[in-house]
TrEMBL record:
Residues 1-21 form the signal peptide. Pfam families: LRR_8. It comes from Hemibagrus guttatus. One of its GO terms (cellular component) is extracellular matrix. This is Tsukushin. The keyword Signal applies. PANTHER family: SLIT RELATED LEUCINE-RICH REPEAT NEURONAL PROTEIN, TSUKUSHI. It comes from the Eukaryota.
Amino acid sequence: MSIMVAFLCLSLSSLLALVTAGGVKNCHPKCRCEVESYGLFDSFSITKVDCSGLGPDATPIPIPLDTSHLDLSHNSISYITDSMLSGPGYTTLVSLDLSKNLISRVSSKAFNKLRYLETLDLSQNVLENLSDGCFSGLPLTEVDLSDNKFREFDLNVFMTRGQETPISVDLSNNLLSTISSNHHLHAPYIKSLLLAGNQLRTVPRLAGIPLQYLSLDGNLIHSIDEGAFEELTDLVYLSLSGLPELPVIHPNSFRGLRNLQVLDLSNNVHLKALSPDVFNGLSALQELNLSKSVATPLPVTMFNHMPSIKSATLGPNMHCWKTHKQGQFHRQIGQAKANDILTCDVPGIIL
């Protein structure tokens, strides 16, 4: 009996080992492959493959046919050729991580076979340019190009298949002094654009791009002029924090931003004063951050341009918020009227 039990246990162990091996069939011996099953009775599965840290001589790497996520980071890759990402298994990729390499060139057809690719990470490389059409035909939703060497960038490179899905683009921490978009072409469907930590000296003109989120933090912008953002009517979040050379924001700078809900103007140490007319047109604004900016007191009239404001941070120890205070019961109307009260946690400030 004990021999039979031992035989059954051994058979079961062998069977489990066989099933496990089958789940990561064709996994490169130096890669780590993980199979995730889902759906009714686990009828569907996807494979995540981690081939990071193998070195530049490892590519192209054979991967399982049903691979959806592939990590090729930390491999000292310098050039993405036409054939590197075209083998079996690559055509099903949804996510590709090429970050933390030494990539300086990407062939114009390098991503042609990746027809399902949604997320692409090329951050922390040494890219200075991209070929026109290198993303053509890809259903991208996220592209990370942060921490590269771009000095100028044409956003029309993100013109992708059908434009059904909006794209989030990260170009922060490059050397950008120029951002362009060809107004004669259909604008790329970019919803989020991170340009923080670059060398932009003026607010870039992004006419036609349906941006909802824009960050220009830490750039060298020296002035924000009237109507600087009026073409970005869909914008919901705008961050202009930590601009080391910004002394002035002109009246009507935010004109046209009728959907803006959050405005961050914090950490602008050279911004000494703000006219109430700066905030003209911000009818939907709910959150304003001016901490470590504007040394002089702000007049209460500034809030006349922001009827929807709910929270305002005006300094390291000055925070204001709007509350609803129930008014006196009105006999004729038959109900009490609520009043909006702006309350601040520091007494004596001008509000």
